[in-house]
Design a protein that fits this description.
alpha/beta, about 60% helix
Length: about 300
């Protein structure tokens, strides 16, 4: 076989095999749990999580914010933001040309004024995730805030996004059932004072607080939070599935907790399927991690869901 024919045969083979390799590459989602707002003493707990996330090198970041189109959840959970958004729409209509031009630029190509313009544009579109992100950039610049804000989710998310050069965050939260969840929770707590469930919950909280002491002292609280047994404990507590005395109230808590997380998982799966990215990361409250893992395994079995502890 001549060299020319060999090269030609290799080229044809690569042309056939390469698309098959790409198709075979499964999309994946790394879920990192956070504690949202943390005490000042553990304000740097996000740093080991940030290092871990940077090493993972995500192409897309999903966050616990409400999607702009979910007006009902916005009314329930962030009515002030919704009012602020509606007000700005009337006062300052979006400059569509400038907005779309700036969105195509890299973060490093934008200045503070342009960060601010994008923040206002996202505010007008009811996109709190990207409004918060660009407002952060407009305030602190591309280097980010030197001091932790004590909001573990935002410290981790914004600094990771800047480091990765990510220009848009993808919101996935759902809050339409909040009222029913908290009503059921309150009834389960009251009823639990007589059947012993509330005492068990208090013991779980005490255990968790005690076990957090050493990781907090040694700067490993973020990693501790993402241990499988800790995530499982949060799941049991938030869904009230720890309770040995099961009744209509505990079942209602579990039902509405599952529904919220199922809807969040739907929001995730729809966007991951739609977008081209292979390596995705979700930064979410630690109590959601196990629930979302379970829901995603049902909704999107082809998605490779990863946890820090695995």
């Amino acid at each position: 076989m001549t060299t020319h024919n060999l090269i030609k045969k290799l080229a044809v083979t690569l042309f056939i095999i390469f698309p098959m390799i790409c198709l075979a590459q499964k999309k994946e989602l790394l879920i990192i749990g956070t504690m949202h707002t943390v005490p000042n003493i553990v304000k740097n707990a996000y740093r080991p999580l940030l290092k871990y996330a940077i090493d993972y090198a995500p192409e897309a970041i999903y966050v616990e914010y409400i999607p702009a189109q979910d007006t009902i959840s916005l009314k329930v959970h962030t009515p002030k933001f919704l009012h602020q958004s509606d007000s700005i729409q009337g006062e300052r209509p979006i400059d569509e040309i400038s907005y779309h031009t700036l969105r195509k630029k890299k973060l490093t190509e934008l200045n503070n004024e342009e960060y601010h313009l994008l923040a206002i544009s996202y505010l007008a579109q009811r996109d709190k995730a990207n409004y918060s992100y660009y407002n952060y950039l407009a305030t602190y610049g591309i280097e980010g805030c030197k001091k932790p804000s004590r909001n573990e989710s935002e410290d981790l998310t914004f600094k990771l996004a800047i480091r990765m050069g990510i220009t848009e965050l993808y919101p996935i939260d759902y809050h339409r059932t909040d009222k029913f969840y908290y009503e059921a929770w309150d009834k389960a707590i009251i009823d639990g004072k007589t059947n012993g469930n509330t005492n068990i919950l208090n013991e779980l909280i005490k255990t968790n607080n005690k076990q957090r002491i050493l990781p907090s002292i040694f700067g490993n609280l973020g990693k501790y939070t993402n241990r499988t047994e800790v995530l499982q404990r949060y799941y049991l507590m938030n869904s009230f599935r720890f309770a040995p005395c099961v009744n209509e109230y505990t079942q209602a808590v579990a039902k509405y907790w599952d529904e919220r997380n199922f809807r969040m998982a739907l929001n995730i799966s729809e966007q991951v399927k739609e977008k081209p990215y292979i390596k995705n990361i979700l930064i979410v409250g630690a109590g959601h991690v196990i629930s979302l893992q379970k829901a995603l395994n049902v909704i999107y079995p082809d998605l490779q869901v990863k946890l820090m502890s695995e």
